[in-house]
Structure formats: structure tokens, C-alpha cells
Design a protein that fits this description.
It is built from four helices and two strands. The protein has 109 residues and is mainly alpha-helical. The protein has one domain. It is globular and about 50 Å long. It starts with a helix and ends in an 8-residue tail after the last helix.
């Protein structure tokens, strides 16, 4: 996400939530979102091999909380609890616009 940091800098308003697939799981993404909007909810499925941070018992991060919830409810239960299905709805919406806009989206200035 370090390379994507300029994308976050283009957003002037605070973020409510960031949804991404598991490829974005990692501390750099959580840090980048937190530096932009500290209270933003980050909803990224942790990798199957993910382990909580050393401070998870005393000060769990959002990622630690996701790992714990998956351990308790399994992955599908976690997806329902955090409404992860919204990510696929956004993807479907974007797929609807692609045929209308051509190969790339352009903003009017």
C-alpha cells in the first residue's frame, strides 16, 4: 500500500471503511489507512497463516480482532459479521461501468 499512498492522499474526506481482498493484508495497509483516517474501519481478510501481534491480548489491532473473530466464527461467520460482501458489490458495480467508459475511467476536471 506504500505505493498506493498517493491514492489515499487524493481523498480529502475521511474514510468510513476500506474493504480489500486478502492480497492487501498486512501492517503497511492498516498504517496507511490509519494515518489518513484513524477511525476508519479496515476490512481485509487475514491470510490463513496470520497470527495476532504480541500486543493482541492487551491492545488488539483491527487485524488482531479479525483474526480472533475468524478463530471463533470461522471465515464465513467473519464475512457476515463485518459485511465483507460489500466488497463484491462494489466490484460488480465497477464492472457495470467499464463497458460504458472504455478501458479506463477518467475524471472530468
Amino acid at each position: 500500500m506504500a505505493a498506493d499512498r498517493p491514492l489515499l492522499d487524493q481523498i480529502a474526506r475521511p474514510l468510513g471503511a476500506v474493504l480489500a481482498d486478502g492480497a492487501y493484508d498486512g501492517d503497511p495497509v492498516y498504517r496507511a489507512v490509519s494515518s489518513h483516517t484513524p477511525e476508519a474501519e479496515v476490512i481485509i481478510p487475514p491470510r490463513a497463516t496470520a497470527v495476532p501481534n504480541d500486543t493482541a491480548a492487551s491492545a488488539p489491532t483491527q487485524r488482531d480482532q479479525h483474526i480472533q473473530m475468524i478463530a471463533e466464527r470461522r471465515r464465513l461467520g467473519w464475512q457476515r459479521a463485518v459485511r465483507y460482501g460489500r466488497r463484491s458489490l462494489v466490484e460488480v458495480s465497477m464492472l457495470r461501468y467499464k463497458p460504458l467508459s472504455g478501458r479506463s475511467l477518467r475524471a472530468r476536471t
